[in-house]
Amino acid sequence: MRQLALFPLNLVVFPGEKLNLHIFEPRYRQLVQDCVQEGITFGIPPYINGSVSTLGTEMKLLHIEKTYASGETDIRTKAVGVFRVREFFHELPGKLYAGATVEPLPDDTAADLVMYQQTRQLIRQLYDILGLQRLLLELPENFRAYDVAHHLGMSTEQEYQLLESATELERQQLVLTHLETVLPVLQETERLKERVRLNGHFKNLTPPAF
User: Which residues on adjacent β-strands are paired with residue 2?
Assistant: First the structure.
């Protein structure tokens, strides 16, 4: 276990994800300065339902994109791993920002090939319905659940459940279940839109033979 600076936010960050942030609060301006001067990393535990979550993602500062006269900055970061909070501190000694004693969690990457193919097919259907073919072009050849989770319409709570999952197999199942739930709803919505479009048009119908 080790000590880690914390930057709680109302979002879930997945390992491997790149995140751009605008830093304006004094405590996080100090955190960025410490990242630059001391080479430290920091954690983003999701702030959900009025409290800091016990799981979070460790972030590495890649570089400062822009510095403003006010002292605010735009920074680029990348998520490097998941941790569990063991003891939370509202302020680290001598610092303005929060921190915690954390335990790094292992990253299981073994995927189920059948579920992977099923997920790819359902994602294709989802993006076709939503008119998001551009996202299909950006879909990695061998994607992980983490790679697509932000583009499936999941809630923050669902994304956090994904972060809590210990194995890629569990994450695949969550993504697959979500897609199998939302797709029928979207497909029915599309059928309803088509019926609305046809209403009032002249119809060339074949009467039933009886």
Answer: 102
The distance from CA 153 to its chain's CA centroid, rounded to whole angstroms, is 10
Residue 91 in tokens? 């302020």
Dist. CA 108–CA 147, nearest whole Å: 14
Note whether 100 and 86 are within 8 A (CB). Answer: yes
**pTM higher than 0.85, yes or no?**
yes
Whole-angstrom Cα distance, residue 168 to residue 112? 8
Is residue 17 located within the same domain as residue 53?
yes
pLDDT in tens, 178-188: 999 999 999 88
The alpha-helical segments, DSSP class H, found in the chain are: 26-38, 113-130, 133-138, 145-148, 156-164, 168-198
Contact of 79 with 19, CB cutoff 8 Å: yes
Split into its structural domains, the chain has a count of 2
Dist. CA 147–CA 131, nearest whole Å? 19
189 contacts: CB under 8 Å, gap ≥ 6: none
Cβ atoms < 10 Å from Cβ of 181: 9
| Structural domain harbouring 64 | 2-105
Q: Is residue 207 part of a domain?
A: no
Which domain CATH number covers 35? 2.30.130.40
User: Are 85 and 104 spatial neighbours (Cβ–Cβ below 8 Å)?
Assistant: no
Residue pLDDT, tens place only, 5-48 = 999 999 999 999 999 999 999 999 999 999 999 999 999 999 99
